[in-house]
Amino acid sequence: MTVTALRTAAPAPATPSEALFNPKTATFTEFDPETQRLFKVVVDFFETRGKKVLKEQDRDLIWYSDFLEVVKTERIFATFLTPAALADGDPNKRWDTGRNAMLSKILGFYGMAYWYVWQVTILGLGPIWQSSNVAAKKRAAEQLENGEIFAFGLSEKDHGADVYSTDMVLTPAGDGDFTATGGKHYIGNGNLARMVSIFGRRADKPILDSADFERHANEDEFDGYVFFAADSQHPAYKLGRNVVDAQMYVAAFDLEDYPVKADDILHTGKSAFHAAINTVNVGKFNLGFGAIGACEHSYHEAVTHAENRILFGQRVTEFPQVRRMLADAYARLIAMKLYSERAIDYMRSASPEDRRYLLFNSIEKMTVTRQGESVMIGLWDTIAARAFENDMYFPMAILGVSGLPRLEGTVHVNMALALKFMQNYMFNPADAGLALLRYLPGNPTLSKVLRKSSRAATPVLSRGVAQLRSELSRATFEPVPTRRDTADDEFLFRQGPSRGLSKVRFHDWRPIFEAFSHVPNVAVFLEQAEGLQTLLASATPTADQQKDVDFLFAIGEMFTLIPYAQLVLEQAQIAGTRTDVLDQIFDVLVRDFSGHAVTLNGKPNATKAQQTQGLNLIRRPLADEGRFDRVVTLARAVAGSYEMNP
User: Transmembrane residues, as ranges (predicted)?
Assistant: First the structure.
Protein backbone atom coordinates (compact mmCIF):
# COMPACT_ATOMS: atom_id res chain seq x y z
CA MET A 1 0.00 0.00 0.00
CA THR A 2 1.46 3.32 -1.05
CA VAL A 3 0.60 6.53 0.75
CA THR A 4 0.59 9.64 -1.42
CA ALA A 5 3.23 12.21 -0.51
CA LEU A 6 2.19 14.50 2.32
CA ARG A 7 2.57 17.73 0.39
CA THR A 8 3.26 18.76 -3.15
CA ALA A 9 4.66 22.14 -4.14
CA ALA A 10 5.01 23.78 -0.74
CA PRO A 11 4.50 27.55 -0.63
CA ALA A 12 6.51 29.80 1.61
CA PRO A 13 5.59 29.60 5.32
CA ALA A 14 2.41 31.39 6.33
CA THR A 15 2.74 35.08 7.08
CA PRO A 16 1.45 36.25 10.48
CA SER A 17 -1.88 37.24 8.90
CA GLU A 18 -2.25 33.72 7.47
CA ALA A 19 -1.17 31.80 10.57
CA LEU A 20 -3.48 30.37 13.21
CA PHE A 21 -3.10 31.26 16.87
CA ASN A 22 -0.75 28.90 18.70
CA PRO A 23 -0.67 29.69 22.43
CA LYS A 24 2.57 27.72 22.95
CA THR A 25 4.53 29.93 20.57
CA ALA A 26 2.62 33.25 20.80
CA THR A 27 4.70 36.15 22.11
CA PHE A 28 2.03 38.89 22.05
CA THR A 29 4.73 41.42 21.18
CA GLU A 30 2.21 43.91 19.79
CA PHE A 31 1.17 44.59 23.39
CA ASP A 32 2.90 46.20 26.37
CA PRO A 33 4.96 44.03 28.80
CA GLU A 34 2.30 43.69 31.52
CA THR A 35 -0.35 42.71 29.00
CA GLN A 36 2.03 40.13 27.53
CA ARG A 37 2.63 38.73 31.00
CA LEU A 38 -1.07 38.42 31.80
CA PHE A 39 -1.82 36.69 28.50
CA LYS A 40 0.91 34.17 29.28
CA VAL A 41 -0.53 33.67 32.77
CA VAL A 42 -3.88 32.75 31.22
CA VAL A 43 -2.29 30.40 28.68
CA ASP A 44 -0.16 28.74 31.37
CA PHE A 45 -3.24 28.22 33.55
CA PHE A 46 -5.00 26.21 30.86
CA GLU A 47 -1.97 24.34 29.55
CA THR A 48 -0.90 23.36 33.08
CA ARG A 49 -4.35 21.96 33.85
CA GLY A 50 -4.42 20.17 30.50
CA LYS A 51 -7.20 19.00 28.22
CA LYS A 52 -8.30 16.08 30.40
CA VAL A 53 -9.25 18.34 33.30
CA LEU A 54 -10.75 20.91 30.91
CA LYS A 55 -13.01 18.22 29.45
CA GLU A 56 -13.90 16.68 32.81
CA GLN A 57 -14.97 19.98 34.29
CA ASP A 58 -16.98 20.75 31.18
CA ARG A 59 -18.78 17.39 31.33
CA ASP A 60 -19.40 17.62 35.09
CA LEU A 61 -20.58 21.26 34.89
CA ILE A 62 -17.97 22.42 37.40
CA TRP A 63 -18.04 26.14 38.18
CA TYR A 64 -14.64 27.56 37.24
CA SER A 65 -13.60 28.85 40.65
CA ASP A 66 -9.97 27.86 39.97
CA PHE A 67 -9.88 30.13 36.92
CA LEU A 68 -11.54 32.99 38.81
CA GLU A 69 -8.99 32.60 41.59
CA VAL A 70 -6.23 33.27 39.04
CA VAL A 71 -8.26 36.24 37.74
CA LYS A 72 -8.39 37.59 41.29
CA THR A 73 -4.78 36.87 42.25
CA GLU A 74 -3.34 38.29 39.03
CA ARG A 75 -5.91 41.15 38.88
CA ILE A 76 -6.67 40.25 35.26
CA PHE A 77 -10.22 41.60 34.97
CA ALA A 78 -9.28 44.59 37.13
CA THR A 79 -6.38 45.47 34.84
CA PHE A 80 -8.24 44.97 31.57
CA LEU A 81 -11.69 46.30 32.46
CA THR A 82 -11.04 49.36 34.64
CA PRO A 83 -11.06 52.64 32.67
CA ALA A 84 -7.98 54.78 33.19
CA ALA A 85 -10.07 57.47 34.92
CA LEU A 86 -10.78 54.97 37.75
CA ALA A 87 -7.35 53.31 37.79
CA ASP A 88 -6.20 55.07 40.97
CA GLY A 89 -2.74 55.58 39.53
CA ASP A 90 -2.22 52.07 38.16
CA PRO A 91 -0.57 52.65 34.74
CA ASN A 92 -1.69 49.24 33.44
CA LYS A 93 -5.41 49.71 34.03
CA ARG A 94 -7.36 50.90 31.00
CA TRP A 95 -10.16 49.86 28.67
CA ASP A 96 -8.20 48.77 25.61
CA THR A 97 -10.31 47.13 22.91
CA GLY A 98 -7.24 45.57 21.27
CA ARG A 99 -6.11 43.60 24.28
CA ASN A 100 -9.70 42.83 25.35
CA ALA A 101 -10.26 41.27 21.94
CA MET A 102 -7.12 39.16 22.29
CA LEU A 103 -8.17 37.90 25.71
CA SER A 104 -11.59 37.05 24.24
CA LYS A 105 -9.82 34.99 21.58
CA ILE A 106 -7.59 33.20 24.11
CA LEU A 107 -10.54 32.33 26.34
CA GLY A 108 -12.59 31.17 23.34
CA PHE A 109 -9.62 29.03 22.31
CA TYR A 110 -9.81 27.10 25.58
CA GLY A 111 -13.55 27.06 26.16
CA MET A 112 -16.56 29.28 25.55
CA ALA A 113 -17.59 28.92 29.19
CA TYR A 114 -14.44 30.80 30.23
CA TRP A 115 -15.05 33.38 27.53
CA TYR A 116 -18.62 33.74 28.82
CA VAL A 117 -17.75 34.75 32.41
CA TRP A 118 -15.47 37.44 30.99
CA GLN A 119 -17.97 38.52 28.34
CA VAL A 120 -20.85 38.93 30.78
CA THR A 121 -18.64 40.86 33.20
CA ILE A 122 -17.97 43.32 30.36
CA LEU A 123 -21.71 43.68 29.71
CA GLY A 124 -22.43 44.21 33.40
CA LEU A 125 -19.84 46.97 33.60
CA GLY A 126 -21.20 48.81 30.56
CA PRO A 127 -24.10 50.69 32.22
CA ILE A 128 -21.88 51.44 35.23
CA TRP A 129 -18.99 52.99 33.30
CA GLN A 130 -21.50 55.04 31.25
CA SER A 131 -23.21 56.33 34.36
CA SER A 132 -22.74 59.75 36.00
CA ASN A 133 -23.04 57.98 39.38
CA VAL A 134 -19.51 58.43 40.76
CA ALA A 135 -20.16 56.32 43.86
CA ALA A 136 -21.35 53.34 41.80
CA LYS A 137 -18.32 53.60 39.50
CA LYS A 138 -15.90 53.67 42.42
CA ARG A 139 -17.67 50.69 43.95
CA ALA A 140 -17.34 48.78 40.68
CA ALA A 141 -13.63 49.58 40.45
CA GLU A 142 -13.13 48.31 44.00
CA GLN A 143 -15.08 45.13 43.26
CA LEU A 144 -12.95 44.48 40.17
CA GLU A 145 -9.81 44.94 42.24
CA ASN A 146 -11.22 42.38 44.67
CA GLY A 147 -11.63 39.86 41.84
CA GLU A 148 -15.41 40.01 41.60
CA ILE A 149 -17.47 39.36 38.47
CA PHE A 150 -20.43 41.34 37.07
CA ALA A 151 -23.74 40.68 35.32
CA PHE A 152 -26.14 42.39 32.90
CA GLY A 153 -29.81 42.05 33.89
CA LEU A 154 -31.76 42.99 30.78
CA SER A 155 -33.79 40.05 29.44
CA GLU A 156 -36.85 38.44 31.02
CA LYS A 157 -38.50 35.06 30.55
CA ASP A 158 -41.78 36.40 29.17
CA HIS A 159 -40.44 39.43 27.31
CA GLY A 160 -36.98 38.38 26.16
CA ALA A 161 -35.21 41.44 24.81
CA ASP A 162 -38.45 43.47 24.62
CA VAL A 163 -37.19 45.85 27.28
CA TYR A 164 -40.11 48.26 26.77
CA SER A 165 -42.35 45.68 28.48
CA THR A 166 -40.14 44.96 31.48
CA ASP A 167 -41.85 43.56 34.58
CA MET A 168 -39.02 44.58 36.90
CA VAL A 169 -40.90 47.27 38.86
CA LEU A 170 -39.41 49.89 41.17
CA THR A 171 -41.75 51.39 43.74
CA PRO A 172 -40.75 54.76 45.25
CA ALA A 173 -39.83 54.51 48.93
CA GLY A 174 -39.05 58.19 49.58
CA ASP A 175 -35.87 60.29 49.54
CA GLY A 176 -34.95 58.98 46.09
CA ASP A 177 -34.99 55.34 47.20
CA PHE A 178 -37.06 52.47 45.77
CA THR A 179 -37.93 48.84 46.34
CA ALA A 180 -37.58 46.57 43.32
CA THR A 181 -39.72 43.51 42.62
CA GLY A 182 -39.63 41.32 39.52
CA GLY A 183 -37.67 38.65 37.72
CA LYS A 184 -34.90 38.40 35.17
CA HIS A 185 -34.02 35.39 33.02
CA TYR A 186 -30.94 34.23 31.12
CA ILE A 187 -28.55 36.39 33.14
CA GLY A 188 -24.94 35.20 32.95
CA ASN A 189 -22.94 35.36 36.21
CA GLY A 190 -26.22 35.98 38.04
CA ASN A 191 -25.17 33.57 40.77
CA LEU A 192 -22.16 35.46 42.11
CA ALA A 193 -22.01 38.94 40.56
CA ARG A 194 -21.57 41.57 43.25
CA MET A 195 -23.02 44.22 40.94
CA VAL A 196 -25.79 43.26 38.53
CA SER A 197 -26.80 46.11 36.20
CA ILE A 198 -30.59 45.69 36.01
CA PHE A 199 -33.09 47.36 33.69
CA GLY A 200 -36.52 48.11 35.13
CA ARG A 201 -39.37 50.63 35.31
CA ARG A 202 -40.96 52.79 37.95
CA ALA A 203 -44.42 51.83 39.26
CA ASP A 204 -45.54 55.48 39.31
CA LYS A 205 -44.78 56.22 35.65
CA PRO A 206 -46.39 55.06 32.38
CA ILE A 207 -44.43 52.81 30.00
CA LEU A 208 -44.24 52.55 26.24
CA ASP A 209 -46.34 50.12 24.25
CA SER A 210 -43.82 47.83 22.54
CA ALA A 211 -46.48 46.83 19.99
CA ASP A 212 -46.38 50.42 18.77
CA PHE A 213 -42.61 50.66 18.59
CA GLU A 214 -42.60 52.36 15.18
CA ARG A 215 -44.32 55.41 16.66
CA HIS A 216 -41.94 58.24 17.52
CA ALA A 217 -42.32 58.49 21.30
CA ASN A 218 -42.02 61.71 23.26
CA GLU A 219 -39.07 62.08 25.60
CA ASP A 220 -41.28 62.12 28.70
CA GLU A 221 -42.68 58.69 27.80
CA PHE A 222 -39.30 57.22 28.73
CA ASP A 223 -39.23 58.82 32.18
CA GLY A 224 -40.21 55.65 34.00
CA TYR A 225 -37.29 53.48 32.86
CA VAL A 226 -34.31 52.88 35.14
CA PHE A 227 -30.98 51.06 35.23
CA PHE A 228 -29.84 50.21 38.75
CA ALA A 229 -27.21 48.04 40.42
CA ALA A 230 -28.05 45.08 42.68
CA ASP A 231 -25.94 42.60 44.65
CA SER A 232 -26.57 38.92 43.96
CA GLN A 233 -25.59 38.13 47.56
CA HIS A 234 -28.32 40.33 49.11
CA PRO A 235 -31.10 38.45 50.98
CA ALA A 236 -33.78 40.08 48.79
CA TYR A 237 -32.08 38.72 45.66
CA LYS A 238 -33.61 35.28 45.15
CA LEU A 239 -31.48 33.11 42.90
CA GLY A 240 -33.64 30.61 41.03
CA ARG A 241 -31.70 28.18 38.89
CA ASN A 242 -29.14 27.79 36.18
CA VAL A 243 -31.26 27.68 33.03
CA VAL A 244 -28.61 25.88 30.94
CA ASP A 245 -26.69 22.62 31.34
CA ALA A 246 -23.23 24.10 31.22
CA GLN A 247 -20.27 25.20 33.31
CA MET A 248 -21.33 28.81 33.12
CA TYR A 249 -24.17 29.97 35.33
CA VAL A 250 -27.00 31.56 33.35
CA ALA A 251 -29.38 32.61 36.06
CA ALA A 252 -33.06 33.09 36.60
CA PHE A 253 -33.54 35.31 39.62
CA ASP A 254 -36.19 37.39 41.36
CA LEU A 255 -35.96 40.52 43.43
CA GLU A 256 -38.46 40.67 46.27
CA ASP A 257 -38.77 44.18 47.71
CA TYR A 258 -35.07 44.68 47.02
CA PRO A 259 -33.94 48.03 48.53
CA VAL A 260 -32.59 50.30 45.80
CA LYS A 261 -30.81 53.30 47.22
CA ALA A 262 -30.25 56.54 45.37
CA ASP A 263 -26.57 55.67 44.87
CA ASP A 264 -27.62 52.40 43.19
CA ILE A 265 -29.37 54.26 40.34
CA LEU A 266 -27.21 54.22 37.20
CA HIS A 267 -29.51 55.73 34.55
CA THR A 268 -33.04 57.06 34.27
CA GLY A 269 -35.33 57.77 31.32
CA LYS A 270 -34.00 57.72 27.78
CA SER A 271 -30.47 57.44 29.13
CA ALA A 272 -31.31 53.92 30.33
CA PHE A 273 -32.12 52.88 26.76
CA HIS A 274 -28.96 54.45 25.39
CA ALA A 275 -26.93 52.68 28.10
CA ALA A 276 -28.41 49.31 27.13
CA ILE A 277 -27.71 49.70 23.42
CA ASN A 278 -24.28 51.27 23.88
CA THR A 279 -23.31 48.50 26.29
CA VAL A 280 -24.13 45.95 23.61
CA ASN A 281 -22.04 47.99 21.14
CA VAL A 282 -19.05 47.63 23.46
CA GLY A 283 -19.57 44.18 24.91
CA LYS A 284 -20.91 42.01 22.13
CA PHE A 285 -18.11 43.09 19.83
CA ASN A 286 -16.25 40.26 21.56
CA LEU A 287 -18.55 37.56 20.14
CA GLY A 288 -16.54 37.38 16.94
CA PHE A 289 -13.25 36.99 18.79
CA GLY A 290 -14.62 34.18 20.95
CA ALA A 291 -15.67 32.42 17.75
CA ILE A 292 -12.22 32.92 16.20
CA GLY A 293 -10.48 31.38 19.21
CA ALA A 294 -12.77 28.34 19.26
CA CYS A 295 -12.40 27.84 15.51
CA GLU A 296 -8.61 28.08 15.66
CA HIS A 297 -8.34 25.40 18.36
CA SER A 298 -10.82 23.21 16.47
CA TYR A 299 -8.88 23.68 13.23
CA HIS A 300 -5.63 22.57 14.87
CA GLU A 301 -7.35 19.49 16.26
CA ALA A 302 -9.29 18.58 13.12
CA VAL A 303 -6.56 18.99 10.52
CA THR A 304 -4.04 17.12 12.69
CA HIS A 305 -6.43 14.18 12.93
CA ALA A 306 -7.29 14.23 9.22
CA GLU A 307 -3.66 14.56 8.12
CA ASN A 308 -2.68 11.48 10.09
CA ARG A 309 -5.61 9.25 9.16
CA ILE A 310 -5.07 6.87 6.24
CA LEU A 311 -8.07 5.53 4.31
CA PHE A 312 -7.82 3.47 1.12
CA GLY A 313 -4.12 4.26 0.85
CA GLN A 314 -4.55 8.03 1.10
CA ARG A 315 -4.43 10.61 3.81
CA VAL A 316 -7.91 11.96 4.51
CA THR A 317 -6.61 15.42 3.62
CA GLU A 318 -5.93 14.21 0.07
CA PHE A 319 -9.52 13.31 -0.80
CA PRO A 320 -10.90 15.93 -3.21
CA GLN A 321 -13.95 16.79 -1.10
CA VAL A 322 -11.80 17.16 2.03
CA ARG A 323 -9.32 19.37 0.19
CA ARG A 324 -12.20 21.64 -0.78
CA MET A 325 -13.64 21.69 2.74
CA LEU A 326 -10.27 22.46 4.30
CA ALA A 327 -9.52 25.21 1.78
CA ASP A 328 -12.89 26.83 2.44
CA ALA A 329 -12.61 26.49 6.23
CA TYR A 330 -9.09 27.93 6.18
CA ALA A 331 -10.11 30.81 3.90
CA ARG A 332 -13.15 31.66 6.03
CA LEU A 333 -11.10 31.56 9.22
CA ILE A 334 -8.34 33.80 7.86
CA ALA A 335 -11.00 36.23 6.61
CA MET A 336 -12.61 36.29 10.07
CA LYS A 337 -9.24 37.17 11.57
CA LEU A 338 -8.45 39.86 8.99
CA TYR A 339 -11.84 41.53 9.32
CA SER A 340 -11.78 41.46 13.11
CA GLU A 341 -8.29 42.88 13.44
CA ARG A 342 -9.25 45.83 11.25
CA ALA A 343 -12.58 46.32 13.05
CA ILE A 344 -10.62 46.89 16.27
CA ASP A 345 -9.01 49.94 14.67
CA TYR A 346 -12.38 51.50 13.85
CA MET A 347 -13.66 50.80 17.37
CA ARG A 348 -10.62 52.44 18.97
CA SER A 349 -10.65 55.43 16.62
CA ALA A 350 -14.38 56.13 17.02
CA SER A 351 -15.68 59.56 17.96
CA PRO A 352 -18.96 61.50 17.82
CA GLU A 353 -17.93 62.53 14.29
CA ASP A 354 -16.91 59.03 13.19
CA ARG A 355 -19.49 56.37 14.01
CA ARG A 356 -18.58 53.92 11.25
CA TYR A 357 -17.71 51.47 14.02
CA LEU A 358 -21.43 50.83 14.57
CA LEU A 359 -21.79 49.07 11.22
CA PHE A 360 -18.50 47.22 11.54
CA ASN A 361 -19.44 46.22 15.09
CA SER A 362 -22.78 44.73 14.00
CA ILE A 363 -20.97 42.69 11.33
CA GLU A 364 -18.45 41.48 13.91
CA LYS A 365 -21.32 40.16 16.03
CA MET A 366 -23.31 38.71 13.14
CA THR A 367 -21.19 37.83 10.11
CA VAL A 368 -18.02 36.75 11.90
CA THR A 369 -19.92 34.44 14.24
CA ARG A 370 -21.84 32.86 11.36
CA GLN A 371 -18.66 32.46 9.32
CA GLY A 372 -17.30 30.69 12.39
CA GLU A 373 -20.23 28.31 12.32
CA SER A 374 -19.47 27.57 8.65
CA VAL A 375 -15.84 26.86 9.56
CA MET A 376 -16.93 24.42 12.26
CA ILE A 377 -19.33 22.60 9.95
CA GLY A 378 -16.61 22.20 7.32
CA LEU A 379 -14.22 20.81 9.92
CA TRP A 380 -16.95 18.57 11.31
CA ASP A 381 -17.59 17.12 7.86
CA THR A 382 -13.85 16.54 7.56
CA ILE A 383 -13.41 14.54 10.77
CA ALA A 384 -16.95 13.11 10.95
CA ALA A 385 -17.53 10.83 13.96
CA ARG A 386 -14.22 11.79 15.56
CA ALA A 387 -15.88 15.10 16.46
CA PHE A 388 -18.12 13.30 18.98
CA GLU A 389 -15.39 11.56 20.95
CA ASN A 390 -14.93 12.53 24.57
CA ASP A 391 -11.21 13.28 24.35
CA MET A 392 -11.75 16.02 21.76
CA TYR A 393 -12.03 19.76 22.35
CA PHE A 394 -14.30 19.86 19.29
CA PRO A 395 -17.65 19.02 20.98
CA MET A 396 -17.20 21.95 23.37
CA ALA A 397 -16.44 24.28 20.48
CA ILE A 398 -19.25 23.25 18.15
CA LEU A 399 -21.87 23.95 20.82
CA GLY A 400 -20.33 27.28 21.78
CA VAL A 401 -19.78 28.56 18.25
CA SER A 402 -23.26 27.52 17.15
CA GLY A 403 -24.71 29.43 20.08
CA LEU A 404 -22.97 32.75 19.41
CA PRO A 405 -25.09 33.89 16.42
CA ARG A 406 -28.21 33.01 18.41
CA LEU A 407 -27.57 34.87 21.65
CA GLU A 408 -30.50 37.27 22.10
CA GLY A 409 -31.31 37.03 18.39
CA THR A 410 -27.83 38.27 17.44
CA VAL A 411 -28.29 37.69 13.70
CA HIS A 412 -31.78 39.16 13.44
CA VAL A 413 -31.05 42.20 15.60
CA ASN A 414 -27.75 42.99 13.93
CA MET A 415 -29.05 42.51 10.39
CA ALA A 416 -31.83 45.00 11.13
CA LEU A 417 -29.17 47.31 12.54
CA ALA A 418 -26.86 46.93 9.54
CA LEU A 419 -29.67 47.75 7.12
CA LYS A 420 -29.93 51.21 8.66
CA PHE A 421 -26.48 51.98 7.28
CA MET A 422 -27.02 50.56 3.80
CA GLN A 423 -28.05 53.66 1.89
CA ASN A 424 -25.21 55.84 3.13
CA TYR A 425 -22.65 53.08 2.77
CA MET A 426 -23.65 52.08 -0.75
CA PHE A 427 -24.34 55.61 -2.02
CA ASN A 428 -21.52 57.26 -0.20
CA PRO A 429 -22.11 61.03 0.04
CA ALA A 430 -18.37 61.65 -0.01
CA ASP A 431 -18.78 60.85 -3.67
CA ALA A 432 -21.16 63.36 -5.21
CA GLY A 433 -22.05 61.21 -8.20
CA LEU A 434 -23.20 58.37 -6.02
CA ALA A 435 -25.09 60.74 -3.76
CA LEU A 436 -26.83 62.12 -6.84
CA LEU A 437 -28.23 58.65 -7.58
CA ARG A 438 -30.48 59.11 -4.57
CA TYR A 439 -32.19 62.10 -6.15
CA LEU A 440 -32.69 60.82 -9.69
CA PRO A 441 -35.18 58.30 -11.08
CA GLY A 442 -33.30 55.01 -11.16
CA ASN A 443 -32.48 52.98 -14.20
CA PRO A 444 -29.61 50.54 -14.67
CA THR A 445 -27.86 52.43 -17.46
CA LEU A 446 -27.83 55.75 -15.59
CA SER A 447 -26.66 54.00 -12.43
CA LYS A 448 -23.70 52.45 -14.22
CA VAL A 449 -22.71 55.70 -15.92
CA LEU A 450 -22.83 57.70 -12.69
CA ARG A 451 -21.00 55.01 -10.78
CA LYS A 452 -18.14 54.91 -13.25
CA SER A 453 -17.83 58.66 -13.63
CA SER A 454 -18.82 59.80 -10.17
CA ARG A 455 -15.40 60.45 -8.70
CA ALA A 456 -14.36 62.57 -11.63
CA ALA A 457 -17.64 64.47 -11.37
CA THR A 458 -17.43 65.04 -7.63
CA PRO A 459 -15.59 68.40 -7.64
CA VAL A 460 -17.95 69.91 -10.22
CA LEU A 461 -21.13 68.55 -8.66
CA SER A 462 -20.13 69.50 -5.13
CA ARG A 463 -19.47 73.10 -6.16
CA GLY A 464 -22.80 73.37 -7.91
CA VAL A 465 -25.11 71.60 -5.47
CA ALA A 466 -25.13 73.05 -1.96
CA GLN A 467 -26.76 69.97 -0.42
CA LEU A 468 -24.05 67.71 -1.82
CA ARG A 469 -21.33 70.12 -0.73
CA SER A 470 -22.67 69.94 2.81
CA GLU A 471 -22.79 66.15 2.72
CA LEU A 472 -19.24 65.93 1.41
CA SER A 473 -17.95 68.03 4.29
CA ARG A 474 -19.49 65.58 6.77
CA ALA A 475 -17.98 62.50 5.14
CA THR A 476 -14.28 63.30 5.10
CA PHE A 477 -12.16 60.97 7.23
CA GLU A 478 -8.48 60.68 7.91
CA PRO A 479 -7.11 57.17 7.31
CA VAL A 480 -7.67 54.94 10.34
CA PRO A 481 -4.31 53.65 11.64
CA THR A 482 -3.57 50.31 13.22
CA ARG A 483 -4.43 50.74 16.90
CA ARG A 484 -2.56 48.54 19.35
CA ASP A 485 -1.26 51.47 21.42
CA THR A 486 -1.86 51.73 25.16
CA ALA A 487 -4.60 54.36 24.96
CA ASP A 488 -7.76 54.15 27.05
CA ASP A 489 -10.83 53.78 24.81
CA GLU A 490 -12.89 56.17 26.91
CA PHE A 491 -15.19 57.23 24.05
CA LEU A 492 -16.93 53.87 24.22
CA PHE A 493 -18.51 54.98 27.49
CA ARG A 494 -19.70 58.32 26.16
CA GLN A 495 -21.17 57.23 22.84
CA GLY A 496 -24.19 59.45 23.44
CA PRO A 497 -27.66 58.86 21.98
CA SER A 498 -28.05 55.58 20.14
CA ARG A 499 -30.28 57.08 17.46
CA GLY A 500 -29.34 58.62 14.10
CA LEU A 501 -27.79 55.49 12.58
CA SER A 502 -29.14 56.23 9.11
CA LYS A 503 -27.14 59.48 9.15
CA VAL A 504 -23.75 57.88 9.77
CA ARG A 505 -21.33 58.69 6.94
CA PHE A 506 -18.80 56.33 5.35
CA HIS A 507 -15.75 56.66 3.17
CA ASP A 508 -15.79 55.28 -0.36
CA TRP A 509 -15.46 51.49 -0.28
CA ARG A 510 -14.51 51.07 -3.95
CA PRO A 511 -10.84 52.16 -3.95
CA ILE A 512 -9.66 49.29 -1.74
CA PHE A 513 -11.35 46.79 -4.06
CA GLU A 514 -9.82 48.46 -7.08
CA ALA A 515 -6.40 48.33 -5.43
CA PHE A 516 -6.78 44.54 -5.28
CA SER A 517 -8.45 44.13 -8.67
CA HIS A 518 -5.40 42.14 -9.83
CA VAL A 519 -6.67 39.35 -7.56
CA PRO A 520 -9.10 37.56 -9.90
CA ASN A 521 -11.92 36.85 -7.47
CA VAL A 522 -11.72 40.28 -5.85
CA ALA A 523 -12.51 41.68 -9.31
CA VAL A 524 -15.46 39.29 -9.61
CA PHE A 525 -16.76 40.27 -6.18
CA LEU A 526 -16.48 43.96 -7.10
CA GLU A 527 -18.74 43.29 -10.09
CA GLN A 528 -21.30 41.81 -7.70
CA ALA A 529 -21.04 44.73 -5.28
CA GLU A 530 -21.54 47.27 -8.06
CA GLY A 531 -24.42 45.17 -9.37
CA LEU A 532 -26.13 45.38 -5.99
CA GLN A 533 -25.59 49.13 -6.09
CA THR A 534 -27.35 49.24 -9.45
CA LEU A 535 -30.21 47.11 -8.15
CA LEU A 536 -30.72 49.38 -5.15
CA ALA A 537 -30.68 52.48 -7.35
CA SER A 538 -32.90 51.21 -10.15
CA ALA A 539 -35.11 48.61 -8.45
CA THR A 540 -35.35 50.18 -5.02
CA PRO A 541 -37.39 48.20 -2.47
CA THR A 542 -40.97 49.46 -2.31
CA ALA A 543 -42.55 50.91 0.82
CA ASP A 544 -44.18 47.55 1.59
CA GLN A 545 -40.94 45.66 1.00
CA GLN A 546 -39.11 48.00 3.37
CA LYS A 547 -41.50 46.86 6.13
CA ASP A 548 -40.89 43.19 5.32
CA VAL A 549 -37.87 42.14 7.35
CA ASP A 550 -37.71 38.74 5.66
CA PHE A 551 -37.41 40.39 2.24
CA LEU A 552 -34.85 42.92 3.46
CA PHE A 553 -32.71 40.16 4.94
CA ALA A 554 -32.06 38.79 1.45
CA ILE A 555 -30.66 42.17 0.42
CA GLY A 556 -28.95 42.63 3.77
CA GLU A 557 -27.06 39.37 3.39
CA MET A 558 -25.47 40.68 0.19
CA PHE A 559 -24.93 44.17 1.53
CA THR A 560 -23.11 43.11 4.71
CA LEU A 561 -20.65 41.02 2.71
CA ILE A 562 -19.36 44.22 1.10
CA PRO A 563 -18.12 46.01 4.26
CA TYR A 564 -16.95 42.61 5.51
CA ALA A 565 -14.84 42.20 2.36
CA GLN A 566 -13.71 45.82 2.55
CA LEU A 567 -12.14 45.41 5.98
CA VAL A 568 -10.64 42.06 4.98
CA LEU A 569 -8.81 43.86 2.18
CA GLU A 570 -7.82 46.83 4.34
CA GLN A 571 -6.18 44.51 6.85
CA ALA A 572 -4.65 42.37 4.11
CA GLN A 573 -3.02 45.51 2.74
CA ILE A 574 -1.63 46.35 6.19
CA ALA A 575 -0.49 42.81 6.99
CA GLY A 576 0.80 41.73 3.58
CA THR A 577 -1.53 38.77 3.08
CA ARG A 578 -0.52 36.86 -0.02
CA THR A 579 -2.56 36.88 -3.23
CA ASP A 580 -3.29 33.14 -3.15
CA VAL A 581 -5.03 33.37 0.22
CA LEU A 582 -7.02 36.45 -0.75
CA ASP A 583 -8.12 34.84 -4.01
CA GLN A 584 -9.38 31.80 -2.09
CA ILE A 585 -11.18 34.04 0.43
CA PHE A 586 -12.96 35.85 -2.38
CA ASP A 587 -13.71 32.59 -4.16
CA VAL A 588 -15.77 31.79 -1.03
CA LEU A 589 -17.34 35.26 -0.81
CA VAL A 590 -18.37 35.22 -4.49
CA ARG A 591 -20.19 31.93 -3.89
CA ASP A 592 -21.84 33.26 -0.73
CA PHE A 593 -22.98 36.42 -2.53
CA SER A 594 -24.40 34.38 -5.40
CA GLY A 595 -26.35 32.19 -3.00
CA HIS A 596 -27.99 35.22 -1.43
CA ALA A 597 -28.83 36.56 -4.91
CA VAL A 598 -30.71 33.32 -5.63
CA THR A 599 -32.58 33.77 -2.35
CA LEU A 600 -33.62 37.30 -3.37
CA ASN A 601 -34.86 36.02 -6.72
CA GLY A 602 -37.00 33.46 -4.92
CA LYS A 603 -38.76 35.93 -2.62
CA PRO A 604 -42.47 35.88 -3.48
CA ASN A 605 -42.81 39.65 -3.22
CA ALA A 606 -39.72 40.50 -5.30
CA THR A 607 -40.59 42.65 -8.29
CA LYS A 608 -39.79 41.48 -11.80
CA ALA A 609 -36.90 43.96 -11.98
CA GLN A 610 -35.53 42.75 -8.64
CA GLN A 611 -35.81 39.11 -9.75
CA THR A 612 -33.97 39.82 -12.99
CA GLN A 613 -31.25 41.95 -11.43
CA GLY A 614 -30.90 39.51 -8.55
CA LEU A 615 -30.04 36.73 -11.01
CA ASN A 616 -27.65 39.11 -12.75
CA LEU A 617 -25.63 39.21 -9.51
CA ILE A 618 -24.76 35.52 -9.72
CA ARG A 619 -21.13 34.94 -10.59
CA ARG A 620 -18.97 31.87 -10.91
CA PRO A 621 -15.67 32.30 -9.04
CA LEU A 622 -12.59 32.07 -11.21
CA ALA A 623 -10.88 28.73 -10.66
CA ASP A 624 -7.11 28.38 -10.47
CA GLU A 625 -5.85 24.89 -9.78
CA GLY A 626 -2.38 26.06 -8.83
CA ARG A 627 -3.69 28.63 -6.37
CA PHE A 628 -6.08 26.09 -4.88
CA ASP A 629 -3.30 23.53 -4.42
CA ARG A 630 -1.08 26.10 -2.71
CA VAL A 631 -3.83 27.15 -0.31
CA VAL A 632 -4.64 23.53 0.50
CA THR A 633 -0.97 23.00 1.28
CA LEU A 634 -1.06 25.98 3.66
CA ALA A 635 -4.23 24.63 5.24
CA ARG A 636 -2.67 21.19 5.75
CA ALA A 637 0.58 22.65 7.09
CA VAL A 638 -1.26 23.50 10.32
CA ALA A 639 -1.32 19.78 11.17
CA GLY A 640 0.79 18.91 14.18
CA SER A 641 1.73 22.50 14.99
CA TYR A 642 -0.31 22.63 18.22
CA GLU A 643 -1.86 20.17 20.61
CA MET A 644 -3.13 21.10 24.05
CA ASN A 645 -1.24 19.56 26.95
CA PRO A 646 -2.95 16.31 28.03
Answer: 107-129
